[in-house]
Amino acid sequence: MKATWIWYPGDFEVWLGNKFNNRRTERGAMFPPFWKQDSHWPTVVFTHEVDLEQEEVVAVWTEGEFNFMLDGKLFSEMASPETIWYEESDYHEGHRIRVPIGRHTLTFKVWNQTSPPALFVDGKTIKSSSQWLVTYEDKIWIDEQGVAHGSGVYVPAGSWNFNDAGDTLTRYSLRWRDKLPVNQEKAEKGMLYDFGRESFGHLDFRKPAGSGTVHIYYGESREEALDKEHCETLDRVHISNGLVHRNPGSKAFRYVYVETTGNANFLLAMYEEYAPFSPERSGSFRCSDDELNKIWEVSAYTLELTTQEFFMDGIKRDRWVWSGDAIQSYLMNYYLHFDTECVKRTIRQLRGKDPVTAHVNTIMDYTFYWFKSIADYYEYTGDTVFIRELWPKMVSLMDYCLSRLNTDGMVEGQADDWIFIDWVDFPMHKRGTLCFEQLLLAKALDTMSYCAVRFSHTESERYARLSADLLAKTKAVFWSPEAHAYLHAIEDGQLNPQITKFPNMFAILYDFASEQEKKQIQENVLLNADIPAITTPYMRFYELEALCQMGQQAEVLPQMKAYWGGMLREGATTFWEKYNPAEHGTEHLAMYGRPYGKSLCHAWGASPLYIIGRYFLGVKPTKPGYQEYEVRPVLGGLEWMEGEVPTPFGKIRVKVAGEAAELYGSNVVGEASELYGNSNDTTVCNASKRCNILTVQVFSDGGKGTLILGNQRINIPANKEITINL
Amino acid sequence: MKATWIWYPGDFEVWLGNKFNNRRTERGAMFPPFWKQDSHWPTVVFTHEVDLEQEEVVAVWTEGEFNFMLDGKLFSEMASPETIWYEESDYHEGHRIRVPIGRHTLTFKVWNQTSPPALFVDGKTIKSSSQWLVTYEDKIWIDEQGVAHGSGVYVPAGSWNFNDAGDTLTRYSLRWRDKLPVNQEKAEKGMLYDFGRESFGHLDFRKPAGSGTVHIYYGESREEALDKEHCETLDRVHISNGLVHRNPGSKAFRYVYVETTGNANFLLAMYEEYAPFSPERSGSFRCSDDELNKIWEVSAYTLELTTQEFFMDGIKRDRWVWSGDAIQSYLMNYYLHFDTECVKRTIRQLRGKDPVTAHVNTIMDYTFYWFKSIADYYEYTGDTVFIRELWPKMVSLMDYCLSRLNTDGMVEGQADDWIFIDWVDFPMHKRGTLCFEQLLLAKALDTMSYCAVRFSHTESERYARLSADLLAKTKAVFWSPEAHAYLHAIEDGQLNPQITKFPNMFAILYDFASEQEKKQIQENVLLNADIPAITTPYMRFYELEALCQMGQQAEVLPQMKAYWGGMLREGATTFWEKYNPAEHGTEHLAMYGRPYGKSLCHAWGASPLYIIGRYFLGVKPTKPGYQEYEVRPVLGGLEWMEGEVPTPFGKIRVKVAGEAAELYGSNVVGEASELYGNSNDTTVCNASKRCNILTVQVFSDGGKGTLILGNQRINIPANKEITINL
Fold it and tell me: Rounded to 5 degrees, what are φ and ψ at B29?
């Protein structure tokens, strides 16, 4: 085991989150979020028990000032130089502590106002790790007889991968790689550079010469870069006698328009900033439809660009962490890089600290998604340690929600709540009592119940009951037996007859409707052209997922090709915040009343990653952390497809080929066409018809897989490829 | 009006409090508190409305990164150099902003992780001040049409006296003055310096020469300084070739023992660190008893040493801010320097931030004193602005208290509560249900009611009812009709027959007993030698105050002389944390199982300041902020006394002379002896006996004073000296 830097769990994220969110700029002005930003605990206490067979000298580094206690007794360099001293060695300068033979308790109190107090202890056997405990108030007081009393609440220390004394958390940054423009041309009074596709990073001025000021205008589009008055981001750099002053910060752009004063001269390049990932551990997809392949690739690139210190929404304008966006990124990520550390960081960052003074991002729905994202995380990872860490903050956030119910026991937007639901182009009620919000709260309460029961919390039943009660109430109020659909809103005591897709698709997704009702919803709402269409990839995520849950992959495939393919045909190199196929030309760039307000690289644009992984390749855990999982491939009109899905145990590979026309729906029945990998002799396909050849490979050491083909269930053994010929 | 630095109220105190509390050392090791330390809000928004008759260019400085909005529109140097730009002038470099004619809203968002985000704006008419508003979450979000919605809660900005752009809050420090030792002598292997009396500051090595290490051992006593193994504080300084490395930090000491290695050489001096005060605005006292004069002077010096950034407990060992200590400092301070800013700072610092995770300083009684101190502050200052600022934090702290009542609706120490009451030398219950704690909580609830009613809070009645209920319950349970006293504790369901002075004296102080019961308490408890004596100045404060409230100044005077005079006879130059007259020699230095653990300069030692000012000079407000006040002088055995009491309006001067023997009690009747100042012709003394001459001077511009002499009530006009001859 290596020693690693440790801190109070969540504090790294709070601190890094402020740096991250406040890096956003708007036309040269910094632009922090409008919700509460928190701070790390400035003073924390780390403690650890050891039992040594021989004396050990350990090296200690901290970020912050610290003191050290051995078995409750304080030592200092001045008073006890034989126990604690400062040393400059070849390895590193730092403190050394002599710990004697036997059972001892080591305690370090560290204070750091500027960044999270952090500790790195490295000895032969004594090494700081997440096994150490930490508290922000040890409550150790000494009575008049000198007797110590303590009642602090200790939790396991936070850590990540800072495994070297010099590799401190405050030095953490994304990685950089070099990138050159693919084209440059004279435009107006300056030069327009094209970096080929949407990129994220900071410009680099190479071979600088002369003196002058460089005015920089960024654009996700060519139009934006050339529009000095309206481009969303800009920069200014001074070059004097060949020296570059004030490097610009990281920005999102494909195009850069530059005007230079004086005789300043340079070659423009950039450093792309990116979060590293392992291709060997990543998901993949390829199929018979080239457009869908391109959609998958651009989705993957979009998610990679928006996966930074945290999962963010858009890389140009917003650059903040948003809960509604993040929950989708997490789900996509489970099918692309399975970066669970980034999921945890983002969940922690979004929650911040108590007291709760507003909904997450101030948005009511975003609070509810925050809960749901924890259930999802647990489903994909099986990580109870994280659930345990979060539990107190889950409780206090839910207390906040429950304290704001209206007299009917329903949640309702108060003056300081933002009700988001979706960006829509039609008139939609966002005030009053909304069916959509009740369903999301009911699901959040389900998550509370689901997590509580893991630790035998008696609270589990209470939350389950609250959820069931709310759901029953919601059904009684909003379900229209005439319309066979959920109505949208009560406003001023009146049930509004408006029907939108939003509550109805969540009733399917969250299994809050009977099978019959689901079919009614599908027919009367989801596939009803009279119901206003959704125009953001954000809600199209859920819409397509609901259809897939109803076995409508054959409906979803052409919709994906039309919608995401539509963006590609508009020249997208990453997917957008909003796409209304009815708009044209530069209309696609505008939003928020600003000509380039729309984000052209938005995480929620990448949802085909999830839809394809979970509902076409058909891979999902059925017990937490893929202990058990199913593979339920559906071609949905494709001739063939193959792909990989990352799991905690490794990858699940799926390859399906067959006659497209006969593979619609969830019944995989068709012509055999290909044999792939080793044959499997333990499982026999009993289908009466001659079938396609399906190849399922499982590389996990553990995990109990089931391949589901129509009504057949076939065991997937670990580390052994099975081939099913239907 | 001058511009001043502004910040989120309370954040300066939170930040400064961490610096302050963490400066404590124990034998060279840093020693932060064991309770939660909080942080300032890292990102805050300042806003202010102006209405300009002409365009104004204003200068802007911040501590932190900032952005600027005019009427909700963001400006940056890069995009709008005509509106906001950076300028280096003769005066100061900083940003300049052009604000056009008319009505405008200025908004600054400032981010600073390290210290409180702060703003200084200085224009012809636009100047940052406590009139500006601030929030830590503006909740301003922009919908898809670009329309802004905001729901942040704004409060008046915090400020103090940082009235120059360069005079930032982070540069704040105590003032320094030079001090030389009065004696030095060779001792053991080094040199012992005596600075004449207890002092606070840091050593200065003058005319340094040679090279070597200086080992420094501090002592409040000679014994402590010479005891290298047990002295509470020490330091180490390196001198190399006449250069001093690593100056020692501030320490408390009278003696310094120094051992030097090598040929290092220097003259030792110190810089005293002190909080400035205005002698013209300070209280004073002089009387016929030289010992009492000395007690008053040493009390004043003790309070001055313990008045630093905050009111602290002891200057050597503790150096933290403690609520139980502070409430006494506040009360003394109202009779010495009337430093209301330090009172507010200390109250804010003690409260810290939500969420409440422990009692103030983890001590239950200290939470209750915190509330009471706010009622006191209001009584002496009449400052409703501060009450309004604190109110939300008063509510959340009281919610915490009320959430921890036992099933009988009484407060009871839980595992993580420290029950302090007092340091006692006899066995005393500190667990279970304590009468003392109920009385303190009842008073805290009274304070809630008292403050709530100022703003017509309907909550006032609720708190009053809670207090009355608790009090009734407490009386029913703890008042013993047989003992005519409050019993101390219920433990494990059993009422314990122990009687202590603690609940009984608070029943008098807080007026929680009938006049008859008070007399019974006085006789059976306070003046009963069988009840264990109090051995800390801390609780002697309340004991003597209770006796004074019962008109027992003639009993109190010899007790003060015996107790505080006793410390002086032991050589005290400041008053101590604890004094047990039964102890001898170096026993007086020990505490907490450590030979020099006792603090010899402890704020709560200075209570004669308060007792003399309020109960001998007899000056106290009868309406908030001395709008109305009374002077009820009681010589209590003194032949004469004169003194000054500071008020918000100026000073009240009182001079009384008379025959000591006849002036006991609250009836001031005696021989005339002196005429002082102008005669007063508006008020005639109707006393039947020939009296002392009393001179009462009032310099306040406002305030309605009443001089009370026995059963006579005489109006004191403002700005006019009255002389009453009795």
Answer: -100, 140
Rg (C-alpha) for chain A, rounded Å, is 28
A685-710 pLDDT, tens digit per residue, is: 333 333 444 554 445 555 688 888 77
**Cα(A34)–Cα(B43) distance, rounded to whole angstroms?**
9
* Residue range A380-389: mean pLDDT, rounded: 96
Number of Cβ within 10 Å of residue B183's Cβ equals 10
From first CA to last CA, the distance across chain B in angstroms is 48
For residues A156 and A135, what is the distance between their CA atoms, to the nearest angstrom?
Answer: 9
Which 3-state string (H, E, C) describes A572-584? CCCCCCCCCCCCC
DSSP state of A411: B
Burial class (CB in 10 A: 0-12, 13-18, 19+), A166: exposed
Distance from CA of B367 to the nearest CA of A (A): 15
Closest CA–CA distance from residue B134 to any residue of chain A (Å): 13
Could you tell me the CA-to-CA distances from A712 to A101, A708, B362 in Å, in that order?
Answer: 62, 6, 63
Residues in chain B: 726
Which DSSP symbol is given to B297? H
Which phi and psi angles does B179 have, rounded to 5°?
-150, 135
Q: What is the overall mean pLDDT for chain A?
A: 91
Nearest to B23 by CA among B32, B10, B36: B32
Work out the minimum CA distance from A39 to partner chain B, whole angstroms: 6
pLDDT of res. A521:
97
Helix (H), strand (E), coil (C) string for A625-692: HHCEEEECCCCCCCCEEEEEEEECCEEEEEEEECCHHHCCCCCCCCCCCCCCCCCCCCCCCCCCCCCC
Nearest to A140 among B19, B34, B423 (CB): B34
Encoding tokens for residue B520? 């019974």
Name the pairing type of β-strands B704-709 and B628-631: parallel
Which positions 506-545 of A are in contact with B (Cβ < 8 Å)?
Answer: none
Q: What is the rounded CA–CA span in Å between residue A388 and residue A610?
A: 27
Give the Cα separation of B352 and B344 in Å (integer): 12
Return the pLDDT at B327. 98
**C-alpha–C-alpha distance, residues B431 and B338, integer Å:** 37
Strands (E) located in B407-566: 433-434, 479-480, 485-486, 489-491, 494-496
Interface contact flag, B111 A36, Cβ < 8 Å: no
Interface confidence, given as ipTM, is 0.93
- From the candidates B43, B74, B591, which should be mutated to test the interface with A, based on the most A CB atoms within 10 A? B43
Find, among A130, A698, A60, A696, the residue nearest to A383 by Cα. Answer: A130
Mean pLDDT for the stretch of residues A515-520: 96
Cβ distance A58 to A100 under 8 Å? no
Burial class (CB in 10 A: 0-12, 13-18, 19+), A1: exposed
Contact B626, B647 (CB under 8 A): yes
What is the Cα–Cα distance from B41 to B34, expressed in whole angstroms? 22
- The torsion angles phi and psi of A480, rounded to 5 degrees, stand at -100, 110
Q: At what angle do helices A323-333 and A340-351 cross, to 10 degrees?
A: 170
Backbone angles phi, psi at A724, to 5 degrees: -110, 125
A67 vs B139: CB contact, 8 Å cut-off? no
Give the SS3 label for residue B575.
coil
Q: 């001459």: which residue's tokens?
A: B693
Tokens of B574: 């400041």
B contacts of A150 (beta carbons < 8 Å):
34
Dihedral sign, Cα of residue A685, residue A691, residue A693, residue A697: negative
**Quick one: closest CA in A to B236, which residue?**
A78
The burial class, CB within 10 Å (0-12 / 13-18 / 19+), for A477 is middle
